[in-house]
Every structure is written in C-alpha cells, then in structure tokens.
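Re: the request from the purification team.
They wanted to know what the chain is likely to look like in 3D before they choose a buffer screen. I agreed to run a prediction and write the result into the notebook, where they can find it.
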Amino acid sequence: MNQHFLDGNNFSLIVQGGGQRGIFASGVLDKFLERNFDPFSLYIGTSAGALNVATYVARQQGLGFNFVLNYTTHDRFFNLNKFIRKKQPMDLDWALNMVQQDGAIPLDFTTANNVLQNGKHALACVTNKSDLQDYYYPIFTDQWLNTLKATCGIPMLYYNDITFDNQQWIDGSVSAAIPVHESHRRGFKNIVVIRTTPIINGIETNEATDFSINQVEKKRKNFEVNMDHYLKRIGMFKEKHHLIHFHQKLSDKLNELKQNHEHTKYKLNNQRWLMDDDHLYRLVTLQAKVSQFGMSSEMLDIMIAHYKNHNAVEGFLTNPPDDVNLIQIAPDRSLSSRPLLSKKDHLLEDYEHGQMVGERFLQSVGYI
C-alpha cells in the first residue's frame, strides 16, 4: 500500500461537472467507497461534481448514479420539446428535492458531518452573477439546497433566481468547471482531479476546439447567412429579429475583445452545457424571447467568461505549478453520454467505465 496516499492532510479531491456525464465520476467515487478509499481533507465539486462530492462525503454509494440515471432523465426534469414549444425550463428544484431529508434519496447529513471533522471541508463552486467570479460554499450547511441549486443552475436552461448572502448566483461551471486553482490557493500541493473528458498525450480531448476571435465571428456570420433557411426549418421564422439583435451584440462584444486581447484564444465547447449545434441554435433562438437574460450583453459576458476560465483551467492542468503534484483520473475515451438527454444505456456504460477507471487508479497507487 502506498503510504503517501494515507496522509489525508496533503490531498484534495476536485470533481468536474458535465451534467449527466458526471455519472462517470459517480462510478469512480463509488469504487472509492467500495474500497474504503478516502485520503482527502478538501473536496471541491462544480455542478454535477458538487453532488458527487456530497454523496462521496456522505458515504452513500450509488446515490449519485441513481440521481443521474433515474431523475435527470425524467421528463419532469427536462424535456427538450416542452422547453422549445412551451417555454418549460429545467426543473432543477424538483430533482434536488429528491435528496432532501424527506425526499426519495435523501443525503445523509449525519454521516457527512462526522466525516467532515478535524479540519476537512466539502465545497461547491458557484459563480457570482455580478462579477462572474468563482466563490466556494460549504455543502453541508443550512443553505445546502441553495448552494447545490447555484452550482447546477445553468443560465440558459434554469430561470429561477438563486439568491443568498445578498448576491445572485449561477452555474459554477461559468467560472471554474474544474476548480483546481482554489485548491492551490488553499495551499494544497497534492491534487487529485476526476474529470469527464479523456486525456491523450497530456492534452484534453473532447468536442472543444480552439478558435481565434476572428474564427468565432466567421462562424457567427455563416449562421447569419443561413438563418432564414434554418428558422423556417425549425418553425421559428418569426423570431428572426431577435436573432439579428443578438448577433449584433455578439459582433460588438467580439470587436471589443479583439481590441483588448488581440492574440487571445478561447476554447469554445458547444457541448459543455448543451447537446449539439442544432439544439444549441434552437435554444439561442428561444432565449432571445423567453430567457430572463434575453440574450443581452449579460448572457454574452457569461458565455465569454466561461470560455476564458475554461482556458485558464486547461493551462493549469497542462502545466501545473512546479510545487504541485497533479493526478488526473479521466475516461479512456469520449463518454457515450451527453450533458443532457442521454440514453440510459449510455449512462450505464459510462458509470461502469468510471468504476473500471477507479479500480485501476487504486491499483496504480498500491491501495489494492
């Protein structure tokens, strides 16, 4: 057994979100629980990663798996047709009610608080809606439900305001999809990251592609040229004026970025929150009409903040500081599931893959 991994004062655990793809992390952590492996004294999760952290700290093997498989796939949680046609948003409140004390799969606060003794902390990353910076709140407190809603509250899909400490909060993935910087700021030199995207030759591989700002604008213009055909095809031609207004704001924002950061590149990942380009443009069209953000400059700021922070995280993961021992646990391949609207057999496949990767990791560190 590797004694290095038994010193819990030295290790932090960071868990990425990814919506339903978080079921991979559920598999890894369930394998950790099965093997009684927990050398960590700091746990931080973003979005679905925060719920995985909560179930791990509460020692509830299978709860995260159950939540994703049976509740995030339910029509009550999210139905794309109802979202587009009837303006029915994601019902995050309904889903998280399931883990309340009187819910179908309640979190075990007693066990979690027993685990979180002797200086241990379990935190969720949330984004301040005003400054779009990352903040970190304890998961197991009286405001735990609002904290989980905040870290999971995707702006384009969840409309309810989340307010506490006199601030409004949105999805933690906007500011820190993988909150490794916070772990380092807190003095941790040994950081274990569970991510939902594979790594090949040390580089993240997923649906993301590097685009310069000029390339982003080119993509925007290409869509605008074909907008009439697209809107007729999906039956939303009457929303054309909303999209034109949105595209003008996007152009203004891109021009501003070009002036201030001529050589900056942003890693754009259309599937980080959503499903694919066709669904993305449907949602963009709808948001111009019904979202609380109204596709304003505020929403553009949120999107660009997400892209910029994603690049900063990738920089840390690719070239960590010299004093950091970074260990990444990642799938061997692109996951079969998607952030939303995944098939159950794909979710089962990714969960089992997570268990296999978790077992292999424990073998590699000499724990089993």
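For the purification team: DSSP finds 14 helices and twelve strands in the chain.
Please add any questions underneath this entry.
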